[in-house]
């Protein structure tokens, strides 16, 4: 017997956190009955239905995409905008791990492995992500110190693992900067620089943990190797 949200994730339908949300919203049935209680346990003999879909085991797949601008990090969009799953040719029901903004480019993982998604999204596992941002204005040494020390963004401090000024462009008064964080909050890089009065005009995620784009063209993707998948699983801390 295992917890319902874990089983849904293991089926590859969605992440464990999203599964919990669907359960609370009454969108999950077990043997025909709606289940809203988190922690409900099910067995292999139970029939699980999520949003009208009866779950069946699928093959686990893992993709690394160089996301272009103009795509929503989702599997569907009610406004009819393009979504990142449109870029992947897969027979499995995949979804992105985390998110990149509509106008942000760079490294994005997509999978149907709910367990791995939960590991990589868990804050305690502190998976580092490096972004290169072009921001308006010149970043001063005082501002650099403030960022390194930790700026409070909304309700909590944003911890920056590393930040480096790559180049200042005098012609258009903008700075190219590399920043490494473990944060997963929406728009966190934009909010970080915005708190100091610098607008992010261009943003690209270059690394995700040990993974890099490695000259992968914009809009293209590749499958992860078994070795890479195992290494991603190693981010799980025993305290979780």
Can you offer a commentary on this structure?
It is a single chain. The protein is built from 6 helices and 17 strands. The protein folds into 3 domains: 2-54, Structural Genomics Hypothetical 15.5 Kd Protein In mrcA-pckA Intergenic Region, Chain A (Roll), CATH 3.10.290; 62-123 and 211-233, Alpha-Beta Plaits; 128-208, Pseudouridine synthase, CATH 3.30.2350. The mean pLDDT is 92. α1 packs across α2 (16-24). The protein has 240 residues and is of the alpha+beta class.
Keywords:
3 domains, 4-stranded antiparallel beta sheet, Alpha-Beta Plaits, Pseudouridine synthase, 20% helix, 9-stranded mixed beta sheet, alpha+beta, Structural Genomics Hypothetical 15.5 Kd Protein In mrcA-pckA Intergenic Region, Chain A, 240 residues
Reconstruct the topology from this structure.
Layout: E1 2-3, H1 4-10, H2 16-24, E2 28-30, E3 33-34, E4 41-42, E5 48-50, E6 53-54, E7 62-67, E8 95-96, E9 105-111, H3 114-121, E10 129-136, H4 141-149, E11 151-153, E12 156-158, E13 160-169, E14 174-181, H5 188-194, E15 200-208, E16 211-212, E17 221-223, H6 226-233
Parallel strand pairs: 9-15
Antiparallel strand pairs: 1-4, 2-3, 2-5, 5-6, 7-9, 7-17, 8-9, 10-14, 10-15, 11-12, 13-14, 15-16
Instruction: Please state the structural category.
Output: alpha+beta
Order of helix and strand elements from N to C terminus: EHHEEEEEEEEHEHEEEEHEEEH
- Can you identify the CATH superfamily of the largest domain? Pseudouridine synthase I, catalytic domain, N-terminal subdomain
Distance between the ends: 20 Å
At CATH level 3, the topology of the largest domain is Alpha-Beta Plaits
Strand content: 25-35%
Round the mean pLDDT to the nearest integer and report it.
92
Please give the largest β-sheet: 9 strands, mixed
CATH class of the largest domain: Alpha Beta
CATH architecture of the largest domain: 2-Layer Sandwich
Shape: elongated
Q: Can you give the helix content as a percent range?
A: 10-25%
Low-confidence segments, given as residue ranges, are none
Cα radius of gyration in angstroms: 20 Å
The total of beta strands comes to 17
Our count of helices gives 6
Taken together, the total number of domains comes to: 3
């Amino acid at each position: 017997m295992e917890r319902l949200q874990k089983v849904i994730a293991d089926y590859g339908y969605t992440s464990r956190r999203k599964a919990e949300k669907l359960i609370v919203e009454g969108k999950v049935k077990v043997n025909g009955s709606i289940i809203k209680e988190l922690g409900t346990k099910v067995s292999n003999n139970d029939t699980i239905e999520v949003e009208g879909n009866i779950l069946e085991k699928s093959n686990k797949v893992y993709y690394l995409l160089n996301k272009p601008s103009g795509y929503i990090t989702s599997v569907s969009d009610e406004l009819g905008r393009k979504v990142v799953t449109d870029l992947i040719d897969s027979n499995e029901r995949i979804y992105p791990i985390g998110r990149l903004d509509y106008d942000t480019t760079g490294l994005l993982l997509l999978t149907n492995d709910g367990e791995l998604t939960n590991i990589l999204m868990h804050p305690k596992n502190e998976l580092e992500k490096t972004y290169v941002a072009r921001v308006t204005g010149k970043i001063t040494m005082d501002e650099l110190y403030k960022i390194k020390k930790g700026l409070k963004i909304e309700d909590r401090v944003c911890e920056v693992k590393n930040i480096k000024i790559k180049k200042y462009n005098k012609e258009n008064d903008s700075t190219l900067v590399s920043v490494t964080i473990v944060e997963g909050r929406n728009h966190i890089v934009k909010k970080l620089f915005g708190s100091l009065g610098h607008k992010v005009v261009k943003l690209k995620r270059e690394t995700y943990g040990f993974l890099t784009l490695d000259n992968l063209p914009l809009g293209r993707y590749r499958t992860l190797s078994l070795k890479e998948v195992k290494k991603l699983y190693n981010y799980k801390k025993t305290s979780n």
